[in-house]
Design a protein that fits this description.
The protein has 198 residues and is of the alpha+beta class. It has seven helices and seven strands. Helix 1 crosses helix 2 and helix 4 crosses helix 5. This is GTP cyclohydrolase 1.
């Protein structure tokens, strides 16, 4: 997704958030009039709007716009979907990969829509556990498949840059609905996302 141009931002929100960032930077002891920081509050305001644009998007409508009748009833997997989000506790990034599978029940969905709904939910203030279930429930409720599975692996800057400062830690969350609650189907999915098919 290309970076938004200036005119696409809400000017009132940009100005308000810019002033708040300016105050924060000054409260931290910096001089917002020095050359390197003059435009930083505005850039940060625009960046924050970009990184939280998921609040203004409807993931279910994205899926509904690309649903097709198809008599395919085997597993469909899109794995290694890169995502970037912001931890709601410290407003620091967490990022990684999402793996999604579903078993159609009369309808399939355009493959690009699955990464798009990952973006919709990750472009919000989040926790990884909620992100996993929002993706899972959106697919389950909208597509109504035989089953859905979501696994997310992520690195959290709130753990790596501050706090316990464990740079190599990875957090994995998962959710399963329908057919994926069956251990054999779940195991097949987990094996497929772990393997390299090339």
């Amino acid at each position: 997704m290309p970076y938004k141009k200036f005119e696409e931002y809400n000017i009132k929100v940009t100005d308000d958030v810019k002033n708040r960032y300016k105050n924060i930077i000054e409260d931290l002891g910096e001089d917002t009039s020095r050359e390197g920081l003059i435009k930083t509050p505005e850039r940060a305001a625009k960046a924050m709007q970009f990184l939280t644009q998921g609040y203004n998007q409807d993931a279910a409508n994205i899926l509904k716009g690309a649903m097709f009748k198809e008599e395919y009833n085997d597993m469909v997997i899109v794995k290694d979907i890169e995502f970037y989000s912001l931890c709601e506790h410290h407003i620091l990034p967490f990022f990684g990969k999402a793996h999604i599978a579903y078993i159609p029940n009369g309808h399939i969905v355009g493959l690009s829509k699955l990464p798009r709904i990952v973006d919709v939910f990750s472009r919000r203030l989040q926790v990884q556990e909620r992100l996993t279930h929002q993706i899972l429930d959106c697919i389950n409720d909208t597509l109504k498949p035989e089953g859905v599975a979501v696994v997310i692996e992520a690195s959290h800057m709130c753990m790596q840059m501050r706090g316990v400062q464990k740079q190599n830690s990875v957090t994995t969350t998962s959710g399963f609905r329908g057919a994926f609650e069956n251990i054999e189907t779940r195991t097949e999915f987990l094996n497929l996302i772990s393997s390299k098919l090339s």
